[in-house]
Amino acid sequence: MSNDNGNPVARGVPGAHGEGSEPGAKPNRSHVRGSGDFVFDMRSLGKHPGEFRDERRTARAPDGLGSGLVLVPAGADVALDLRFEAVSEGVLVTGSAVAPLSGECARCLDPLTTETEVSFQELYRYLPDPGEDEADGEEHFLDGDLLDLEPAFRDAVVLALPLSPLCSEDCPGLCVDCGAKLADAGPAHGHGDKVDPRWGPLAQLDINDRVED
Ligand SMILES: [Zn+2]
Ligand SMILES: [Zn+2]
Fold first, then answer.
1. 79 alpha carbon to ligand 1 midpoint, in Å?
2. Mean pLDDT, to the nearest integer, of 42-63?
3. Which ligand does the CA of 104 lie closest to?
4. Quick one: how far is CA 210 from the chain centroid?
5. What is the pLDDT of residue 8?
6. Closest-approaching ligand to the CA atom of 172
């Protein structure tokens, strides 16, 4: 079903996939969930409110992002354009992501590929005090110096996924009688005067002047 790929988007954005590129300065990596591609190191940002850092990165899409009809292919390139800003409670992330989508047309079931662009703004707080309940679900927290953008990215994409993706706005869909794809079958496609049995009683009425022509 997936007929995209083969797109020559450049990989290897500095810092996107690399591990251990700073010999001797290996950070104390605590537990980080999700794809490392969405994890950002905040050490260079500092903690003075108002400081900010812009970063662009190409990340590989995580698994399982999509609905029945359309999804972001796992491993596909996601273009992130982000600003990290230090605020008193943590780090405010503002940015956008462009991700490819593949799926099938809700009307004619043809495979389709498109893309979605989402923008988001999320506050990542410093870890809560030990006594504080962190299981809020809505809140995002920094993990030491690391910020895992994946949950915020997922939330934004899921909200942006089209409920009824279409191969084209005026896709005529399938023939309800035979399932033929109407875009291929042409406007003359039909099944004579075969009448749906549910409309049988109406066929007895004198509406010939409307059916013909
Ligand atoms: Zn279609
Ligand atoms: Zn038909």
1. 27
2. 93
3. 1
4. 47
5. 42
6. 1
Q: Which residues contact 46 (CB under 8 A, 6 or more apart)?
A: 86
Identify the CA nearest to 161 among candidates 118, 104, 106, 105. 118
Q: Is 16 helix (H, G, I), strand (E, B) or coil?
A: coil
Give the Å distance between the CA of 181 and the centre of ligand 1: 8
Distance 50 CA to ligand 1 centre (A): 48
Spatial separation of the C-alpha atoms in residues 142 and 123, rounded to whole Å: 9
For the cut 80, the answer to whether the pLDDT of residue 197 exceeds it is no
> Does residue 7 register a pLDDT over 90?
no
Ligand 1 mean position to 116 CA, how many Å? 18
Whether the full predicted model's pTM is greater than 0.85, yes or no, is no
- The amino acid sitting at 174 is L
pLDDT tens string 12-39: 344 444 443 444 444 443 444 445 899 9
The per-residue b/e assignment along 192-202, b for 16 or more CB within 10 angstroms, e otherwise, is eeeeeeeeeee
